[in-house]
Write a structure and sequence with these properties.
Elements lengths: L8 H4 L5 E6 L5 H16 L2 E6 L7 H5 L3 H5 L2 H5 L6 E5 L2 E7 L5 E3 L5 E5 L14 E7 L11 H13 L6 E7 L6 H5 L13 E5 L6 E6 L21 H4 L20 E9 L2 E10 L2 E8 L9 E4 L8 E2 L8 H11 L3 E3 L2 H14 L5
Parallel strand pairs: 1-8, 1-10, 2-6, 2-7, 7-8, 11-14, 13-16, 14-15
Antiparallel strand pairs: 3-4, 4-5, 4-6, 9-10, 11-12, 12-13
């Protein structure tokens, strides 16, 4: 049954160093990379590095069951020619194993894979891993929060594993939970927002030899049997059943706004998007209405942007107040007096607030 799910065939044809793969949940992305790594281990003795954000993501039960789907589908026996039937997990390492006639577990002495966590990368710096030729960063997309300077930390993890080599292939896997992931901007993946399911984009970086293939996986056209559990009339669940980007439902403008009702404007520039934020005053009503800005920002306007600027009207984090105007603006967010032109704009602001350091409350 797993054959109807995701295959690495198309993206591997690109021959890229980094392979960024995202799409619907439970589509077989992790399964495909684990199978690929197992085949490489059996055929060439190459090992796998499994990277997660937190060490708890692969310890205990999570680590022990990571390869369970391959075992259940008989892939381990098939790939190893019947020599091994399962994977044993111990101390951030995975080993091939089987049960002998006496019912005793027999474990291969060489690990097939090692686990690395970005949050504790300092502990792995003194160890060498010359046989790791494949790296899998699973669930690199997050809807909640990322570690401070996470991209740089991830690069340090890769440096620890790769050392002075250029024979390692990297897979970054994620569900379509957040198109404003900092990895996209840090890696210069400028067309993520325009991609459609089934697209594979290839990025190259001058004459460096570096290349990144990005695939937005095609949803299973036949659907999954489990889809019936998520058939509610809720757009947020389309990420589970159809691979659409997960997005919240945000409050829209509660009243019609006239130009005279807008008493102040400020702007948010985030991840390539520019938003106009109108402070509205209507009788006893006072709130901020946020919508897209498609023209130039007027000179001397208050702008919140990720970029560093010496201009006095530019600020970086809306949660860090430097004057009374900042404090008044922040008050709207604390009191939930923010409304959006559409859910996509709300999603941009949510991710900007996370980038600022968390919540406004």
């Amino acid at each position: 049954m797993i054959n109807k799910y995701y295959s690495l065939n198309n993206i591997l044809k690109k021959g890229a160093v980094y392979n960024v793969i995202f799409g619907e949940r439970s589509s077989g992305k992790t399964y495909a990379v684990l199978k690929y790594a197992l085949e490489r281990f059996v055929k060439y003795g190459e090992q796998l590095g499994i990277v997660r954000r937190w060490r708890e993501d692969f310890t205990g039960k999570r680590g022990a069951t990571m390869w369970a789907a391959l075992e259940e589908n008989g892939e381990i026996k098939k790939i190893t020619g019947g020599e091994w039937s399962s994977i044993y997990y111990y101390a951030s390492r995975w080993y091939l194993c089987s049960i002998d006639e006496a019912g005793k577990r027999v474990i291969d002495e060489t690990p097939i894979a090692y686990g690395f966590s970005i949050s504790s990368m300092e502990h792995d710096k003194s160890t060498s891993f010359p046989r790791i030729k494949t790296i899998m960063f699973d669930e690199f997309l997050s809807r909640t929060a990322y570690l401070p300077d996470e991209f740089v930390l991830f690069m340090n993890v890769l440096s620890t594993i790769i050392r002075d080599r250029k024979n390692v292939k990297i897979f970054m896997l994620g569900n379509a939970v957040n198109k404003y992931c900092p990895y996209f901007s840090e890696m210069g993946l400028q067309h993520i927002k325009k991609m459609k399911p089934g697209d594979i984009d290839l990025y190259k970086y001058g004459n460096s030899g570096l290349s990144v293939a990005v695939e937005y996986t095609t949803p299973n056209k036949r659907g999954k049997e489990s889809d019936l559990y998520f058939a509610f009339d809720n757009p947020r669940l389309q990420m589970i059943t159809g691979g659409a980007w997960e997005i919240d439902i945000y409050p829209h403008c509660p009243t019609k706004i006239k130009p005279k009702d807008v008493i102040f404007k400020y702007y948010i520039v985030f991840s390539g998007d520019t938003l106009e934020c109108d402070v509205v005053l209507q009788d006893e009503l006072s709130f901020t209405f946020i919508h897209r800005k498609t023209t130039e920002i007027p000179n001397n306007s208050l702008v919140y942007s990720q970029e560093f600027s010496p201009l006095p009207n530019y600020r970086r984090k809306i949660t860090s107040c430097v004057d009374n105007i900042d404090r008044r603006i922040l008050q709207y967010y604390k009191q939930d007096k923010i409304f959006y032109s559409d859910n996509e704009v709300g999603e941009i602001v949510r991710n900007y607030i996370i980038w600022c350091g968390g919540k406004t409350k």
